[in-house]
Amino acid sequence: MKLGIVGAGSIGCYLGGKLLASGAHVTLVGRPRVRDELATHGIVVEDLGVRTTVPPVEIETELAAVADCDVIACCVKSGQTEQVARELAAIIGPTAVVASLQNGVHNPDVLRAHLPGRTILGGIVGFNVRSRGDGVFHRGTSGPVMLDRVPAAEPLAQALEHAGIAVELRRDLMRHQWTKLLVNLNNAVSALSDAPTRQLLLSPGYRRVIAAITREALAVMRRAGIRPAALRGVPVRWMPFVLRLPTVIVRLVTRSQMKVDPDARSSMWEDLARGRPTEVDFLNGEIVRLGDAPLNRRIVELVHAAEGHGSPALAADALWSALHA
Q: Bridge partners of 170?
């Protein structure tokens, strides 16, 4: 099976590195900057304490490179999905399977709209990956890759599992996508605070911010008739309550739910640090589009104001005040 990864950023290079190390036939498509970096350094995957090194690899910069792939993982930012879908429509065959491994909830629909007749898989990457530079891609949290439970997902699922990546096939994937979006609302808090994920979880001030925007999002989703799935067995409606508990209890709950290492940071933080546009419109902005959400609207405004300038490194009290300005 020929696998293609379109969007060789942090997630794409992590998945590509794991798959290449397992012997899979993988074609990576990314920007010239990534091509040059990996041609020099190869890929080093740091995976919760375990390092895997892949020799220098050739990264393609044109989508034509995946024209003959059987399965294509779309890992581009949400704002690029429509353009990529239009280009793929002109080059891939009718039997190609395209899997959306992206943030947000509507990317599979965008792909289906522009790739009629092809099999499109919804997907969720349930962990965080940070690019450290020099070809090093650091996974900072635990979690599986989720895919639609359909026969077409089996080859990709088997390849990922062979590469040592946990996979879950879900018939109710859309509900899990909404749950992942709720979790990803804290990406903006990470970006605006310049704080690692663990620091956010252990800071009562930052947790107060995350609890407030999550509570608002849950109310908006409830009014819209959206029922997100439980998060690792815990009803998501408990999230704001748990975040407001004493830190010692939050620490215990977090440890029971997932592993978070000290270097874990959000992709939105990385986008601000590198001067790139963020996905805030597809995360907090999705809540704003659903209904009345002034706190999430203010988060969107603050992130857009920071784009091109880097993180404003707001302390917890300053961020709380900015939300209510």
A: 148
Name the residue type at position 232: R
d(CA 143, CA 231): 11
Q: Please state, in angstroms and rounded to a whole number, the distance separating the CA atoms of residues 292 and 136.
A: 41
pTM to 2 decimal places? 0.92
Mind listing the domains of the chain with CATH numbers? 2-171 (3.40.50.720), 176-323 (1.10.1040.10)
What are 88-132's pLDDT values in tens digits?
Answer: 999 999 999 999 999 999 999 999 999 999 999 999 999 989 898
- The token pair that represents 269 in the structure block: 């933080």
Q: Which residues pair with 29 in a beta bridge?
A: 6, 60
For the chain, what is the largest distance between any 2 Cα atoms, rounded to a whole number of angstroms?
Answer: 55
Q: Dihedral angle at the C-alpha atoms of 121, 78, 124, 265, nearest 10 degrees?
A: 160
Packing angle, helices 107-114 and 81-89, rounded to 10: 30
Give yes or no for a contact between 98 and 115, defined as CB atoms under 8 angstroms apart.
yes
Contacts with 282 (C-beta within 8 Å, 6 or more apart), sequence order: 78, 79, 103, 104, 106
Instruction: Encode pLDDT of 265-313 as tens digits.
Output: 888 999 999 899 999 999 999 999 999 999 999 999 999 999 999 999 9
Residue 30 makes CB contacts below 8 A (sequence gap 6+) with 7, 8, 9, 12, 13, 59, 60, 61
